[in-house]
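FAQ: What does the model actually see?

It sees only this:
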Amino acid sequence: MAFFSVVAVGFLSAWAWNEIFLRFARRLGALSQGIPNQRRWNSQRKPIIGGLSFFILALALGAWQPEGLSVTRSFLAGGIVAFLTGLADDAFVAIPFLKLMGQVGAATLALVLGAPTLSVEPAWLSLPLTLFWYTAVMNAFNMMDNMDGVAGSLALVLLAMSPWLLPGEPHLLLYLGIAGALAAFLVRNWHPSHLYMGDNGSQFLGFVLAYWGTQVFHALPFQEGWMRLVWLVGLFAILAGDTFWVIVSRLARSQHPFHGGTDHLTHRLAHLGWAVPMIPLALGGSQLTLGLVSILLAPYPQGWLGSLLLIGLVGLVIGYVHLRHLQRLFSLARVRTPL
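And it is asked to produce this:
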């Protein structure tokens, strides 16, 4: 019963916040920058207040902490730094290096205050690996926030798996509350959207997913840390695969890998003729499938091998989409080239 109650509280509070703030966002200037050649598919200026509802809900639950719900200092402190990093980017369009420093700062503060690490052998590797995990997930999620409904759908599906992956975790109700807030956000973010998540939301949710991932890591039954890590990367294979292929394609074109651009999986699918509302449905459904398969693999001692296959399969599919798009561009170029 508590599960449904906290989801309902998250949904209703986020829905009310979004509806109220939408009425004042334009007067307050809380709009996307509308910068050409950035990662967003639609460059139209819209309110970027979606992330505020997630952040305010987390702060409220952290202050209230009803029975059965606990929010640690490490989560709140790191989440605040992540949110402020994204808010600064929304306001001033920060350069990638400064954004990276904010992400490292959020992860470092959380770890200093007792956040779990990705424990592997040799032990000295655990801390730098965990810092890399936080920055990688935060960047990957931030980069995936480029089309209506996509980032919210992926985060909602992942956090909705918490009752099966983290059944005894004190943060469980917090994650479900944020999932409820994400569902309310998607009501207004589905194509054609009325608001965006903003970097304030994508950085905060990226931190939440990274923190959530470290807790899932420790809940897994595999004996070796690297087995747990392979399983975890398999669960995040869509985010990981998209980021990998975007970086590869940008480096191949001699571009900065962390500057925005319309070269993500979502953009590739749209260029191949997919309708925009279908893309978040397809990616959300794929993430749900990945999650269910991962949950089924977890009880088996060799289940991490299945996760390794998932990583390879998802990576190949995403790579194929990128290559199909490039092949289409080359074909169009040949047609347009005069003899």
